[in-house]
Amino acid sequence: MSKKLKTKVVKELSSRYESIDHCFLVDYRGMKASELNKFRSYLKESKVNVNVIKNTLLKKISSKKDIQFDRFSPLMNVPIALVYSNEVDSINTAKRLISWTSKNKLPEIKGGYAEGKVISTAEVKKLSQLPSREVLLAHLAGAFKSPTTRLARGLSELMAKLPRAMNQYAAKKTS
Fold first, then answer.
1. Which of 28, 74, 114, 174 allows an S-S link to 22, with CB 3.0 to 4.6 Å?
2. How far apart are CA 53 and CA 60, in angstroms?
3. Could you tell me the sign of the dihedral formed by the alpha carbons of 54, 39, 29, 117, in that order?
4. Of 141, 157, 72, 164, whose CA–CA distance to 109 is shortest?
5. In whole angstroms, what is the distance from residue 67 CA to residue 87 CA?
6. E-state strands within the chain
7. In this structure, what are the phi and psi dihedrals at residue 118, rounded to the nearest 5 degrees?
8. What are the distances in angstroms from CA 130 to CA 77, 93, 112, 134, 172?
């Protein structure tokens, strides 16, 4: 590859990876091209991308743009593919990736980068077990709403008990 072409590729990839906040590294060795294409298609359904990229090129990109890829350079001792999404959060990306790897032996997850730190394979699996962002926000909204709802029910019950208590008191007075 000529130097001019490499520079152009680095610039293009830098702009692509600049806005991602999470990515996972997978070792795709041993996968046939057709399997890799099925893997890509499966992830693409959920707006998750897969890029096979040379490690040296990835290191160049990280040094040019302060993209923090250098944080997981110890994981890049084998050919890797980058699994990432600009449209989906890290939890949903991890869920989709783990869903594929639980049914298929390959690719092997090497680790990743999420929430500003390097994570191991085990942490990627833990991340995939979390509820999605939407579910967590719904739980949070329910938690905020819960005390108000309980207060309203309690006051409602008190108001319902008052006439009964008055009737019982009146019945006692007349008898």
1. 114
2. 11
3. positive
4. 72
5. 18
6. 22-27, 49-53, 80-84, 108-114, 117-119
7. -75, 135
8. 29, 12, 16, 11, 59
d(CA 92, CA 46): 8
Q: Phi first, then psi: what are they for 128, rounded to 5°?
A: -70, -20
Q: Would you state the structure tokens that stand for residue 35, as one six-digit string? A: 């399997």
| CB burial of residue 165 (10 Å; 0-12, 13-18, 19+) | exposed
For residue 77, what are the contacts with CB-CB under 8 A and spacing of at least 6? none
pTM: 0.74
Contacts of 69 (CB under 8 A, 6+ apart): 17, 58, 59, 61, 62, 113
Which residue type occupies 110?
A: K
Strand partners, 22: 114
- Token pair 């085990």 is at which residue? 122
Note the pLDDT tens digit of each residue in 18-58: 778 888 999 999 999 999 999 999 999 999 999 998 888 87
